[in-house]
Request: fold
Amino acid sequence: MLTVLGVFFAVAPAVVWTTIARTRSVGFVIGGALLAGAGLLIGVQQGWIEAPGPDAHLLFTVLAPLLIACGAGLEGRHESSPPQKWISLRNGAIGFLGAQFALTLVAGLLYALLLGEGADAPPSKALPALPPGITMTEEGISCGSGGCWRAMTVTSEDGLSRPEIIRQLGLQRESCRSSGWLLDWRDVCVGAKDNGRNVTVYAGWGY
Reply:
């Protein structure tokens, strides 16, 4: 269900444009750009493209109406006065895109507010990929006074010691990277710990 809603969200501006486009040349260019943007957004939704989803949705709902407005403006330079039917379609399109932007903005603000609670942990993809010979035995989420984090226990199939495992993973020191562009201002910090029995690799939020 969420996948269907995500695809509809992505292709909706292109569908709207097809109802108000009046010229073939501009119509195809703007329509192609909107479909390309929809494809990129769907790629983010499905995890094929590495990018923060909430930020990508917000940018898409800002840029898509601007692109449509530019297309309508270009068509207006080469076309006579539009018929009343087109004006009604245009007003409906403006209302639809405005509602889509408002819903996205509200959802984005709610998402940003939830970030301040610190009750979530980074997704599994925040944990580093394991090199050959090192396997995961357990993964879970833990929470404490500093928030929540995701951790996995790893072992070596080649008999490496715990310090050697950490060196093999390249996690001698904790490293952080940005989690998002606009809405998610946190960093994802990844590191490894030798707890005396095994090695724990963790990913947590940095502020």
Remarks:
- Residues 84-115 form the longest helix (32 residues).
